[in-house]
Specification:
Layout (H helix, E strand, L loop, with lengths): L2 H9 L1 H12 L11 H14 L3 E6 L13 E8 L6 E7 L17 E3 L2 E3 L3 H21 L6 E7 L10 H6 L10 E4 L7 E6 L1 E10 L14 H21 L16 E9 L17 E10 L5 H18 L5 E9 L2 E2 L5 H14 L4 E5 L5 H6 L6 E3 L14 E3 H20 L5
Parallel strand pairs: 3-6, 3-7, 7-15, 8-14
Antiparallel strand pairs: 1-2, 2-6, 4-5, 5-16, 8-13, 9-11, 9-12, 10-11
Helix pairs in contact: 1-4, 1-10, 2-4, 4-10, 6-7, 8-10
Cofactor: Co(2+); Zn(2+)
Protein name: Acetylornithine deacetylase/succinyl-diaminopimelate desuccinylase family protein
Family: Belongs to the peptidase M20A family.
């Protein structure tokens, strides 16, 4: 047991709590991307005092980037005193909107009953704070360590990560030889290692129609009714077929160990901005829906898309006047890091030391920024590990447990010890 590391982290418990609360107080809401720059500057200023070299990097011309809402990321690096690998802790600083139902100020960083409350407490400012404390303590206890430590706070993960990790990966920030191991402190429970995620395909389907007077719909062609036929076919054919597909990936929760599809939105006919008047009587000449298809390691992206387009093509043959278009919005392949990868082995060692048990190895039902590390950076020694309970993410009264953050920081510090100093316990 590394008592020096553990005592040092215990001694900085209050600092860990204060740092988490400070991060929550930046309302980094995405969309639109508020308070990114001041939050990134806050992280940079803190790490600069610990002799990290820091950079603020804007995701120029990425979705949502503007002078009003710049996609500002922070990357900090500390080089040790000898040659060795680089361990990178990556956390996203953006949070979803607060929504309704809160009993505390969502951006107050309230501390009570052994918890820190606020939007982003769990997902994932508590994990960011834990990684910072873990790195700083490791540097204090082992000042002569070889290699390097990087910490980043990146944006837009909640909307795909294109202005954050994807942009940085395209610039070489998540590739060898700069970086060897990546830990993303997403909230997947303190005794679990997340090896990757299911795949995702987002697409927009549009059905076409012909406008006409609503009192004489037979003179037009309703795109909404055509979309109704699409949804009916999905219900009768596609959803049952997806439900039968199982995976060997250890996805949590168990319901996600099969293929799924969600209808994200439907928009048809005229807009609803006629208030306080009344809508005009028109037959809808267009209807759009966005689908969110999550798929398994055992499926190919061509197969996934083909299951949808085959239904649409059949309707075009069989249904009078039916016509459609389909547009890809995003596609990401499933990813799963090998269980014997160095970063997995290192964090597993920490979990054994802190909790006295073997870690659970899981796969996330949804994607996170590991997708960009793998597909753009071509770096596959990457996992998600951090404090927090995934089910609390995006909920009212979101919180992270203080004990959980302290224990996760200890696991991260042991991970650094194994990866940088080779301190396997055996």
């Amino acid at each position: 047991m590394n008592e020096k590391l553990f005592r040092a982290i215990d001694d900085r418990r209050d600092e860990l709590v204060a740092l988490t609360a400070d991060l929550i107080r930046f309302p980094t809401v995405n969309p639109p991307g508020e308070a990114y720059t001041p939050c990134a500057e806050f992280i940079a200023n803190r790490l600069r005092k610990r002799r990290f070299e820091t950079q603020l990097i804007r995701g120029q011309d990425t979705p949502g980037d503007s002078d009003r809402y710049p996609r500002t990321n922070v990357v900090a690096r500390f080089d040790g005193r000898g040659h060795g690998p680089t361990v990178h802790f990556n956390s996203h600083i953006d949070v979803v909107e607060a929504g309704e139902g809160w009993t505390v100020d969502p951006y107050g960083g309230i501390v009570k009953d052994g918890r820190v409350y606020g939007r982003g407490a769990c997902d994932m400012k508590g994990g960011l704070a834990a990684s910072i404390i873990a790195a700083e303590v490791f540097m204090d206890v082992y000042p002569d360590f070889p290699g390097a430590i990087e910490i980043s706070g990146t944006v837009d993960e909640e909307s795909g990560g294109f202005g954050g990790v994807a942009y940085l990966a395209s610039k070489g920030f998540f590739s060898k030889p700069r970086v060897d191991h990546v830990i993303i402190p997403e909230p997947l429970n303190k005794d679990r290692i997340c090896l990757g995620h299911r795949g995702v395909w987002w697409a927009e389907i549009e059905t076409k129609g012909r406008i006409a007077h609503g009192s004489m719909p037979f003179l037009g062609d309703s795109a909404i009714r055509h979309m109704g036929a699409v949804l009916h076919a999905f219900e009768e054919e596609l959803f049952p077929a997806l439900d039968r597909k199982q995976t060997q990936m250890p996805v949590v929760p168990e319901g996600a160990r099969r293929s799924t599809m969600n209808i994200n939105s439907i928009h048809g006919g005229q807009t609803e901005d006629f208030f306080p008047g009344l809508p005009s009587p028109n037959v809808a000449d267009t209807c759009r829906t966005v689908i969110d298809r999550r798929f398994l390691l055992e499926e190919s992206i061509d197969q996934v898309k083909g299951e949808v387009t085959s239904i649409l093509d059949r309707l075009k043959r069989e249904r009078p006047k039916f016509d459609y278009s389909i547009r890809d919005l995003m596609e990401v392949q499933p990813t799963m890091t090998e269980r014997d990868a160095p970063v997995v082995t290192a964090v597993a060692e920490g979990i054994r030391e802190i909790f006295g048990k073997e870690p659970d190895y899981v796969i996330s039902p949804g994607t996170y920024d590991q997708k960009h590390v793998a597909r753009i950076g071509h770096l596959h020694d990457c996992i998600a590990y951090g404090p927090g309970i995934l089910d609390l993410a995006h909920q009212p009264d979101e919180w992270v447990g203080i004990d959980d953050m302290v224990e996760s920081a200890k696991v991260m510090a042991i991970g650094l010890d194994v990866l940088l100093r080779g301190a396997l316990r055996g």
